[in-house]
Amino acid sequence: MTVITEQKIWSDAPATADGWIARAREVSAILARDAVERDRAGGAPFDEVRLLKDSGLVTLLGPTEFGGAGQPWETAYQVVREIARGDGSLGQLLGYHYLWAWAVRLVGTAPQIGAVEELYTSNRFLFGGAVNPRDTDLTIVDRGDTLVYNGEKSFSTGGRATDLTVLEGIIEGTATHVFAIVPTAQDGIVFRGDWDNLGQRLTDSGTVEINDVEVDWSGAAGFVDKEFQPLVYNTLNFPALEIVFANFYVGIARGALDTAADYTRTRTRPWPYGGDDKELATDEWYLREGYGDLQSKLWAAEAFVDQVNREANAVLHDARENLTEQARGDLAVRIAAAKIRAADVALEIGTKVFELTGARATSNTVGLDIFWRNVRTHTLHDPVAYKRREVGGHLLTGELPEPTWYT
User: Fold this and answer.
1) End-to-end CA distance of the chain
2) DSSP assignments along 101-126, one per residue
3) Long-range contacts formed by 18-26: CB under 8 A, 24+ apart
4) What radius of gyration, in Å, describes the C-alpha atoms of the chain?
5) β-strand 164-171 against 138-142: which pairing, if any?
6) Mean of pLDDT over the chain
7) Is residue 371 within 8 Å of residue 350, measured between CB atoms?
8) What backbone torsions phi and psi does residue 172 show, to the nearest 5 degrees?
9) In the chain, N or C terminus with fewer CB closer than 10 Å?
């Protein structure tokens, strides 16, 4: 039996942002105890999701009138970072959940926003999404009062452990995209359970088949009388997700650095052939230099991501009608830059920690590889080179990224 199956009861909900971040730190510590063992076992993260629900973190962004914490995105980013510090897979799951829970605010109508937020908050539901843009879109047949989705997606983060799934497809014979939220547990949604990748193994992000999933037209996000109501705010979906990425990247990096430092304090042996012999590894100059370099780089990345978190928070919580194309583009560039820094430092730390811990730290019983595997896997989500190009183009010409599925 793994540690994660231990029952944890929280008697009350935190009243402040700091309290919720402390709660996330507590959950992260529970997840970290057997993260390596659970990673190797794989499967769907049912027990882990139960922990997120029991802790109240799933409804962090949910309105207080429905039993949620009513916290802003800035708190959610820090919570994602803390969870990823203990388990990168669960940091991703929770971060994606927050984005998909907010998606109704990105594109939905006022009645849809109220209905969805009450549904997921009052029931502590977890969101997943079958919205991989690189696949052929799901096809939608308009049957008058309802829409029927069919098709397949090769990625579906959260998979079997979710309660609600976000679908996206194109109405047959048109170019009209439609988002809708449906219950995960239904015959028409079939998860193959084929997620078997290098890292992020507990996200259950494998293939999903959508077979005749029916949605009432009233559930077509942002549509009124079958006509979509466009806003610039609608295009925030990907930037809002990418800043979530940056936060769980630096969270994974922090977990790697802390784990390595603890190993060095307790198990790394000093090098006896350098002419400057030390009794303790923590007194070795090259280890102090190496850890100092990584710590300073991570502090810098965390500080920059924190600043961009505040900028994204201000936009996401402002009135939707206020967002201009210029402001949207400027924020997208800043988020792209934050993702670049977070990805680079997390990959460097995930590799360099082995040079600072020593050969014995490569033992599978140590499991230090989990951090690199997790961040290496997810940073391939979309090419970081294109993020650098966006930032460079903005600096040189003032060019704004064109809103797409990946900008």
Assistant:
1) 43
2) HHHHHHH--HHHHHHHHHHHHHHTPP
3) 20/56, 20/57, 20/60, 20/69, 20/71, 20/75, 20/79, 21/75, 21/78, 21/79, 21/82, 23/55, 23/56, 23/57, 24/55, 24/57, 24/78, 24/79, 24/82, 24/83, 25/82, 26/55
4) 22
5) parallel
6) 95
7) yes
8) -55, 130
9) N
1 pLDDT tier (thresholds 50, 70, 90): very low
What's the CA gap between 252 and 181, in Å, rounded? 30
pLDDT at 266 over 50: yes
Contact 307, 396 (CB under 8 A): no
241-261 mean pLDDT: 98
* Predicted model pTM: 0.96
Mutual angle of helices 369-378 and 325-357, in 10-degree steps: 150
Residues making up the chain, counted from first to last: 407
- Residue 216 predicted with pLDDT over 50: yes
337, two tokens: 């830059």
Mean pLDDT calculated for residue range 354-364? 95
CA distance 205 to 222: 27
Inter-residue contact 20 to 60 (CB < 8 Å): yes
pLDDT at position 308 is 98
Structural domains for the chain: 3-126 (1.10.540.10), 129-228 (2.40.110.10), 232-397 (1.20.140.10)
Alpha-carbon torsion (255, 259, 265, 271), positive or negative: negative
The pLDDT assigned to 218 comes to 96
Q: Supply 15's token pair.
A: 């009243």
